[in-house]
Amino acid sequence: MASVRVAVRVRPLSQREKDLSAKVIIQVDGQITSVLSTKENFSCMNGELSGERVKSFSYDFSYDSMNSTSLNFVTQEKIFKDLGTDVLQAAFEGYNACVFAYGQTGSGKTYTMMGNPGDYGLIPRICEGLFHHIGGVLQKDKASFHMEVSYFEIYNERVRDLLPSTETQGCELRVREHPKDGPYVDALSRHQVQSYTEVGQLMQEGNKRRATANTGMNNVSSRSHAIFTIRFIKAMFDGELPSETVSKVHLVDLAGSERADATQTTGIRLKEGANINRSLVTLGIVISTLADLSVSGGIKRKQSFVPYRDSVLTWLLKDSLGGNSKTIMIATISPADVNYSETLNTLRYASRAKNILNKPTVNEDSNVKIIRELQAEIARLKALLSAGNQMPSFEQPSGSSVEERLHQDEARVQELTKQWASRWKEIQTILGEDAVALRKEGIGVVLDSQIPYLIRIDEDLLSTGVVLYHLKEGITSVGAGGTKPEQDIVLHGEALQREHCVFENQRGAVTLVPLPGARCAVSGMEVTQPYLLSQGVNIQLGKATMFHFNHPQEAAQLREKRKSGLFVPSNSAAFSVETFSDFRLWMPFLQKHKNRNPVGFDALIKHS
After folding, report:
1. pTM for this one?
2. Phi and psi angles of residue 391, each rounded to the nearest 5 degrees, phi first
3. Three-class SS of residue 16?
């Protein structure tokens, strides 16, 4: 269990507040933030005195950013060191993390989260810190990393992608809930990044699309809640055991709570403010309910209902509030007496949030978890065998069954570890290729490549990944491995030889060359001699290891021919004779291509 960590930050007086001759009513002393009640607001609605003249609140951090010349002035760098480094540590250890800024409109939320050019906030600093740490870990532990980012906003209770594809631009996205991973935005684009420069470009592009407007409280008021999400995967060998963790980091810049009279909003701005306030009220209720449950030790759980689904914001933050996440709340406040009631409400909500207990756990890859559990079982079985050898013979358990289980577990660990290492080797190869790019197309993701490649067709119902193998210029060797030098592509499947076949890529022409005794087939027909491949054929190696062959340059040429009406199949073996009305009309074409594809030609002649 881990409590939500809470920080409060006080901004300087704004020009509007100075024009109103506002007085400073906030004092910061260590972790204590105090608000002074003036004569005008030192009473309740019935005219009686409200109580203490000074209300004080204790938080994990209290930041005084009111006067830049003060010795106590807290900078963006200080906030990152206190809060951002914890997020970095959580990501590298495999925990989910969330940072969200909460407060009145114009109180400094966007500045704290995004910052200004030359004075960056938490989000850019955390992203930069991730890549800085990656460089250090790569040298020290030789780990592998994969990082994706998404950026969306909740505007008038509707979700909009801030980094959309052509198909989803301007579309409203739906929120759904996965039984294991929790709520997510359906069809939201995810962008693979390999440097902080790429992240900065995406962030800048998304910020341009954010809904902002000029109000009486703020010239550039955020009219939406913006959520920047990082999906961070770390893979490495921890001793002899593989280790793979997946972290989700939500960095949230909330729109500010506001009063219509204070912001002087009308029309569409008034509607925006109403939706903003509705979601923030729901967030406040969720915080209060979770705080009550945590204080009562869950005794009231049956009677209390947490209304996550009452707003899109709280639904998407469900894991971050009372769930699987290490969460930090930054409450931003104005120091001016004219904002007394809003400031006091923010401080009260922040104080309540401290009582929320989350249940963060390391998000480990399921296969890696199985390997670790098997290793623990192997250690137990070895201890059992060792103890058995020291017992009298009549007390010894059946050693054969224990030894048999031990050998089975060791073989399974070896196989799973080999598969895991091979998968990450291929992922790193793909990530290192300049010729590869991922792009959104409709609700799908298209992988673009400039060189020929194989796509694994996996019949395992539990498999969820897509494996791509590039066929480099020259020779690409394929086999079950265990050779020196190792095969370029190591596969695991029935009837696969250690050295099974090679793919020869000579100036864009790719030929499959089966090695002696190896089972190979193209489009369902056995191949024993070198075979020139063409776009779109399916390849079978061994008994059941299937691939789809893609040749980007050839496919582009065929698309152009199709546009002009000149397209003809380049591989006769891939088409059924029954699809043609008169086979004799195709005889000249087949005769012409007999030398290029003799196996396919003979099969068609026999079929006819």
Report:
1. 0.66
2. -90, 160
3. helix
